[in-house]
């Protein structure tokens, strides 16, 4: 499969070394956790590098450099959560502005759009961005931002980043790609023309279900200045320990992502032939609508799978309680495998009629496939399916 940016060996080296260097006083190879709120200045308003930890912290700066390097970008900004990073992008907008966004996207993104920013006069059109023509059709003269997830959450739809970024650019709008599912190891949206990349670093970048964080990456100096102003003015910044944990997680990102993908492929293959399963959403399956594009745009197909049973919604909910290796929990991207029911959990904030119209069925089940032995994951799902 092709990949934007570095080859596998180059990326693995980047993951270990990007953004960090030995601490100059002691030579510590790991970036220290700088637990400080303020910094001594030699003269008033003459700070050497840092003045206050909401504005900047050495551990956070290392993380921001690392994530920017992984994405092949010029600037990185770290936030206290993925939602804080999304909020920062939306704060670039003004009342009267319009956004085109995917109709199959994380429930928290939909919630902040419809329950927060619409109240301030920002309007949204939700479209199936897997067809770039839908994006073009949804544009208005007041459109200032095009927002996509690819693969999307939770239906794993694939959007042509280059095509959508070109449409947005020609219209004079910014394009932002939520790259959380893919990570920079699998795809690099900036290289495909996107203006901003956002991540929930809680997920694959952190990778161990022990931290909450977010990040933005961009090449534009102007965008960096505007977003850094918002980062400081609004204050949704991560603590230094959170930054340290994400930095540590990044070092094994390519190793983990390859194992996630291996397990997901095995799970998707089982589900695709199981008599109790009606539909499987996984871009690695040849019959997936976005398979060819994913093969071109991504290094591999990632670790997320969603599916629907050939049965009742209650059967789907029951299945979520019958697994032994997969744990019933929200979130994704950790080393352990998780199973959840999006309509009542991660996407519960989306109105049922809206959710169903976008193709997110009441019985949908989402899997975050961890790094356990794929044979154990397959066996776990087999026994769970047999129990309903």
Q: Can you describe what's shown?
A:
This protein is α/β, with parallel strands linked by helices. 37% of the residues lie in helices and 15% in strands. It contains 14 helices and 12 strands. It has a 7-stranded mixed beta sheet with strand order 1-7-6-5-4-2-3, with helices on both faces. Strands 8-9-12-11-10 form a 5-stranded mixed beta sheet. Helix 6 links the parallel strand 4 and strand 5. The longest helix is centred in the last third of the chain and has 21 residues. It is globular, with a radius of gyration of 21 Å. The relative contact order is 0.14.
Task: Please give the structural blueprint.
Layout: H1 8-17, H2 58-70, E1 75-79, H3 82-90, E2 98-102, H4 107-115, E3 123-127, H5 132-138, E4 143-149, H6 161-171, E5 174-178, H7 183-186, E6 196-200, E7 214-218, H8 221-234, H9 240-250, H10 253-273, E8 277-281, H11 291-297, E9 304-309, H12 313-320, E10 327-328, E11 338-340, H13 352-357, E12 364-368, H14 374-386
Parallel strand pairs: 2-3, 2-4, 4-5, 5-6, 10-11
Antiparallel strand pairs: 1-7, 6-7, 8-9, 9-12, 11-12
Question: Low-confidence spans: pLDDT under 50, at least 5 residues?
Answer: 1-9
Give the strand tally. 12
The total domain count is: 2
Alpha carbon gyration radius = 21 Å
Q: Assign the CATH topology of the largest domain.
A: Aspartate Aminotransferase, domain 2
Q: List the strand order in the largest sheet.
A: 1-7-6-5-4-2-3
Largest sheet, in brief, is: 7 strands, mixed
DSSP strand content: 5-15%
CATH class of the largest domain: Alpha Beta
Measured as a percent range, the helix fraction is: 25-40%
Order of helices and strands: HHEHEHEHEHEHEEHHHEHEHEEHEH
Total of helices = 14
What's the architecture of the largest domain in CATH terms? 3-Layer(aba) Sandwich
CATH superfamily of the largest domain: Type I PLP-dependent aspartate aminotransferase-like (Major domain)
Mean pLDDT, to the nearest integer, reads 95
């Amino acid at each position: 499969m092709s990949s934007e940016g570095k080859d596998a060996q180059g990326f693995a080296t980047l993951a270990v070394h990007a953004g960090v260097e030995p601490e100059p006083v002691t030579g510590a190879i790991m970036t220290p956790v700088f637990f400080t709120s303020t910094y001594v200045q030699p003269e008033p308003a003459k700070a050497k590098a840092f003045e206050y930890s909401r504005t900047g912290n050495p551990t956070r700066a290392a993380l921001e450099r690392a994530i920017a390097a992984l994405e092949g970008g010029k600037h990185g900004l770290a936030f206290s959560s993925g939602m804080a990073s999304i909020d920062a992008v939306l704060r670039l907008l003004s009342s009267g502005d319009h956004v085109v966004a995917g109709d199959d996207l994380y429930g928290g993104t939909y919630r902040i759009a419809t329950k927060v920013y619409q109240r301030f006069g920002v309007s949204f059109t939700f479209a199936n961005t897997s067809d770039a023509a839908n994006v073009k059709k949804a544009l208005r003269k007041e459109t200032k931002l095009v927002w996509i997830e690819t693969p999307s959450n939770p239906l794993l739809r694939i959007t042509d980043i280059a095509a959508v970024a070109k449409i947005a650019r020609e219209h004079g709008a910014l394009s932002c790609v939520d790259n959380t599912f893919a990570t920079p190891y699998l795809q690099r949206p900036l290289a495909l023309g996107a203006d901003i990349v956002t991540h929930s670093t809680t997920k694959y970048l952190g990778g161990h279900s022990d931290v909450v964080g977010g990040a933005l990456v961009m090449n534009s100096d102007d965008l960096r200045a505007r977003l850094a102003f918002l980062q400081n003015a609004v204050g949704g910044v991560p603590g230094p320990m959170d930054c340290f944990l994400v930095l540590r997680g990044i070092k094994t990102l390519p190793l983990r992502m390859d194992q996630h993908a291996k397990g997901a492929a095995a799970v998707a293959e089982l589900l695709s032939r199981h008599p109790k399963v009606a539909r499987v959403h996984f871009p690695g399956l040849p019959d997936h609508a976005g398979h060819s594009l994913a093969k071109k745009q991504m290094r591999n197909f990632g670790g997320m799978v969603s599916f629907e049973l050939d049965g009742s919604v209650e059967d789907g909910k029951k299945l979520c309680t019958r697994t032994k290796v997969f744990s019933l929990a929200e979130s994704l991207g950790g080393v352990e495998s998780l199973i959840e029911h999006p309509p009542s959990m991660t996407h519960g904030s989306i109105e049922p009629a809206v959710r169903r119209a976008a193709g997110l069925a009441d019985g949908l089940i989402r899997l975050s496939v961890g790094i356990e032995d794929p044979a154990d994951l397959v066996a776990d799902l087999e026994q769970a399916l047999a129990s309903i």
